């Protein structure tokens, strides 16, 4: 369990932060950028949830929790040395990726196939889900970049990739099952 009795510690005043294994790194390090952008994605889920109800709200709440797990995974390097931690570090699992895929398939089953790209908008919930999608894509790009220089759990990267797709399909669901999607019209304003 996490206990936060004091919010400011002053340990980051020099521009460094601690990773999950205790190592100190610059706050601008690729690893911090990756899990920081996962946190940003999660904050936008909070905005989306202001407009969500029922199953959509429950799914977003679960994904929000998953993103804390993902941040915990990304903030702990040295996956090969997990056994030395004295506990099992939290890592994303392939089953979490598969759950997103199943949810995407279920949501997409009732949607009319797209004949155009979609512009963000329609309902407030859809617009917020598209914002979640674009920030999630940035988190994915940063995690992929990090993986070129340091070990990263492949399931974490896959989860981000599927999650952005989940947000896209959920955005269509939030637009009256795609009936109120705002479609791109190429060259409309020429």
From TrEMBL:
Gene3D superfamilies according to UniProt: Cobalamin adenosyltransferase-like (1.20.1200.10)
Q: Which reaction does it catalyse?
A: 2 cob(II)yrinate a,c diamide + reduced [electron-transfer flavoprotein] + 2 ATP = 2 adenosylcob(III)yrinate a,c-diamide + 2 triphosphate + oxidized [electron-transfer flavoprotein] + 3 H(+); 2 cob(II)alamin + reduced [electron-transfer flavoprotein] + 2 ATP = 2 adenosylcob(III)alamin + 2 triphosphate + oxidized [electron-transfer flavoprotein] + 3 H(+)
User: What region holds the Cobalamin adenosyltransferase-like domain?
Assistant: 7-173
Cellular component per GO, a single term: cytoplasm
Q: Does the keyword Nucleotide-binding apply?
A: yes
Pathway entry: Cofactor biosynthesis; adenosylcobalamin biosynthesis; adenosylcobalamin from cob(II)yrinate a,c-diamide: step 2/7
Q: Which UniProt keywords apply?
A: ATP-binding, Cobalamin biosynthesis, Cytoplasm, Nucleotide-binding, Transferase
Key word Transferase present: yes
The record's Gene Ontology biological-process terms are: cobalamin biosynthetic process
Q: What is its EC number?
A: 2.5.1.17
GO MF annotations in UniProt: ATP binding; corrinoid adenosyltransferase activity
- Enzyme class, spelled out: transferase
Q: Which Pfam families match?
A: Cob_adeno_trans
Annotated localization:
Cytoplasm
Q: Which family does it belong to?
A: Belongs to the Cob(I)alamin adenosyltransferase family.
- According to UniProt, the name of this protein is Corrinoid adenosyltransferase
Q: Origin organism of this chain?
A: Fertoeibacter niger
């Amino acid at each position: 369990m996490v206990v936060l009795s004091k919010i400011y510690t002053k340990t980051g005043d020099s521009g460094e932060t601690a990773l999950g294994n205790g190592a100190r790194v610059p706050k601008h390090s690729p690893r911090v950028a990756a899990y920081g952008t996962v946190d940003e994605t999660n904050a936008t889920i909070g905005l989306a949830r202001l407009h969500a109800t029922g199953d959509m709200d429950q799914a977003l709440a679960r994904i929000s929790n998953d993103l804390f797990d993902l941040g915990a995974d990304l903030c702990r390097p040295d996956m090969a040395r997990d056994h030395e931690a004295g506990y099992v570090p939290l890592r994303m699992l392939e089953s979490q990726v598969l759950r997103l895929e199943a949810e995407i398939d279920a949501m997409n089953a009732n949607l009319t196939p797209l004949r155009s790209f979609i512009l963000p908008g329609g309902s407030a919930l859809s617009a917020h889900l598209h914002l979640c999608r674009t920030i999630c894509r940035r988190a994915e790009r940063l995690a992929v970049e990090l993986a070129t220089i340091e070990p990263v759990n492949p399931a974490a990267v896959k989860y981000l990739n599927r999650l952005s797709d989940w947000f896209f399909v959920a955005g269509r669901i939030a637009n009256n099952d795609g009936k109120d999607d705002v479609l791109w019209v190429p060259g409309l304003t020429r």
